[in-house]
């Protein structure tokens, strides 16, 4: 980023961390014994310093940041929800810079066992995003972060955030955990409209795409409806989770990092474990294109109907 971290000490820099599960059951120790000297102090230290609310605060404390410091838990969208809050605070002038983090570590293997039994995770341990054989997602671990600042303050620019929004499906007849293509489409259209982006001009889409039986279908439908009306070119669709699995709370920021690496190298890496397109998705491909081999890509192309600087 070209910025000496020491120069940020005492600054109005915000820290926004997206995370879900914590280690060791929220940090609570096993059987603290009041008759063992120092055991209560140790237990208090473990509880306080392993709690989720300190994930962001510890970063702010160690670096003497004075901006907002908060932890965001919206399940798999946690880190991108954190990024949305960070972006909005920058746009409103509440902060001068922001550190957006996403983290997920698998400290409790029994969760994977339960999700395999429930049909959420792949019993084969294969992340076959968009493929006919997809039978659930594969858990992965990630710790990653982004540094956001206004363009005029930046020494290096890897990408430009032009819109960041969140929504939720609301009440659905199919159940709380069933994704809604209609709501996803609504959010995509709103984001493009506010950023003055012409949807058919989009040149690449990095999908959430986990490899679940229902989720991929709903998301691809939303992408097709949002960006393919009037489109004359193919729209490449990438899926980081095919390469590294689903890092849940960290998956959003992980995907942003992937896209920036693709920008820098002018090449989109292929989705792996893809052999046969899922039958229910065939009506959307083309104009959507599953990236199955190295895809040359030049990100410097016009997306906007009019210029909209962040």
From TrEMBL:
It comes from the Eukaryota. CDD domains: PKS (cd00833). It holds the Pfam family Ketoacyl-synt_C. InterPro entries: Ketoacyl_synth_AS, Ketoacyl_synth_C, Ketoacyl_synth_N, PKS_Beta-ketoAc_synthase_dom, PKS_NRPS_Biosynth_Enz, Thiolase-like. Keywords: Transferase. Residues 1-310 form the Ketosynthase family 3 (KS3) domain. GO terms for biological process: fatty acid biosynthetic process. GO terms for molecular function: 3-oxoacyl-[acyl-carrier-protein] synthase activity; fatty acid synthase activity. Belongs to the thiolase-like superfamily. Beta-ketoacyl-ACP synthases family. This is Ketosynthase family 3 (KS3) domain-containing protein. It comes from Medioppia subpectinata. The lineage of its organism: Eukaryota, Metazoa, Ecdysozoa, Arthropoda, Chelicerata.
């Amino acid at each position: 980023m070209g910025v000496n971290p020491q120069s940020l000490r005492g600054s109005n820099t915000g820290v926004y961390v997206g995370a879900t599960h914590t280690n060791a059951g929220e940090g609570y120790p096993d059987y603290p014994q009041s008759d063992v000297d120092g055991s209560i102090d140790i237990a208090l230290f473990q509880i306080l310093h392993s709690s989720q609310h300190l994930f962001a605060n510890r970063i702010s404390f160690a670096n003497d940041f004075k901006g907002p410091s908060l932890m965001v838990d919206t399940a798999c969208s946690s880190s991108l929800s954190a990024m949305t809050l960070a972006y909005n605070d920058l746009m409103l002038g509440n902060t001068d810079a922001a550190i957006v983090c996403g983290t997920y570590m698998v400290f409790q293997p029994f969760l994977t066992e339960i999700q395999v039994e429930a049909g959420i995770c792949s019993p084969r341990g294969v992340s076959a995003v968009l493929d006919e054989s997809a039978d659930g997602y594969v858990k992965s671990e990630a710790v990653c972060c982004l540094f956001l600042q206004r363009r005029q303050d930046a020494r290096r620019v890897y990408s430009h955030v032009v819109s960041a929004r969140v929504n939720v499906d609301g009440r659905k007849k199919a159940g709380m955990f069933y994704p809604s293509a209609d709501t996803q489409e609504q959010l995509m259209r709103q984001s493009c409209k506010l950023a003055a982006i012409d949807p058919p001009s989009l040149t690449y889409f990095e999908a959430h795409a986990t490899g679940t039986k229902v989720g991929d279908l709903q998301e691809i439908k939303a992408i097709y409806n949002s960006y393919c009306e009037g489109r004359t070119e193919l729209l490449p669709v990438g899926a980081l989770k095919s390469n590294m699995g689903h890092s849940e709370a960290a998956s959003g920021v992980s995907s942003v990092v992937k896209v920036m690496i693709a920008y820098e190298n002018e090449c989109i890496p292929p989705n792996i474990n893809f052999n046969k397109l899922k039958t229910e998705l065939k009506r959307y491909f083309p104009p959507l294109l599953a990236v199955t081999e190295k895809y040359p890509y030049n990100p410097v192309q016009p997306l906007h109907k009019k210029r909209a600087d962040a």
